[in-house]
Known about the structure:
The protein is α/β, with parallel strands linked by helices.
Amino acid sequence: xxxxxxxxxxxxxAADTGSISGAAEALYIxxxxxxxxxSCLEEALGMKLLIRNSRGVKLxxxxxxxxxxLQDVFDSLKKAEVExxxxxxxxxxxxxxxxxxxxxxxxxxPYLKKFIxxxxxxxxxxxxxxxxxxxxxxxEDNIDVGFICETGLQPGYVYKPFQEVHDVFVTTxxxxxxxxxxxxxxxxxxxxxxxxxxxxxxxxxxFDIRQRAKADNEADNNESSTDNTSALSPKxxxxxxxxxxxxxxxxxxxxxxxxxxxxxxxxxxxxEINNMxxxxxxxSIGMGISGVVREFVLDRLEGGQIxxxxxxxxxxxxxxxxVYKRSLLADSPSAHFMEYCRK
Length: 343
């Protein structure tokens, strides 16, 4: 390994500016000094990196490879210098967290509140994104740590589970009762004789619609005293209801789709919503059945605003937790925050 970083810097600036003179001007050294540094680097690596011509310099294939990797190196160094200067000037550390709106609101918020109160010298910023975008932000060093639902990660990243979460389906009790009434009525109608009634000559066929109306009214009056929730199986409920789910590219949606597939459940009516809070609100007003995380709706379940659909086979539990780069420093604000949350 070459110890002199200045060799790499001379090469990088020359490649970036396209000339030896440009590098000399940027580095405040002479052109011969730049040329010597690049020559020493080429000699140490045993390969040609730059081709000099009358118009400046041109990268060789090997030079392109080295330049590509040095871009990340010098960009990281620049960010480190800015961060260190910020700490030195203001005495303030910074914690940048990526988290979805729902996970922040229902799980992370209490920990954030206490952490900020106990660590006023740390500047905390929150970027709300989906899991996929959080991983992208982490890769680009726009955040320090993410709080996500468990998912597959690329090498170089660490996921530490924080707590289990449970996916459930919820709605109002009235929606369930009406759904059962509707489906039972549809089944009864399909079983009736559909032969058309008509009048011809002296033959008269009459259908007493008043009798049917009377029966329907009696069913409505008895609705409150009838347990309709057991009339349909969980599978039938999910297949015939207005089922409200997150969009297909969401981690939670993928988890529910896997459950449907494994249990041969084929919903007929799916309404896609891009916000978990709206799913909860829509279920609470009887708009349909929503697939949500139980930990997000405990207060509404306990208050009777919504009910949980009992499933024949529970949806497999998942975890939510912290994700960060393996290179994260042990004494960084991010590491301090994660340790704080586990106390």
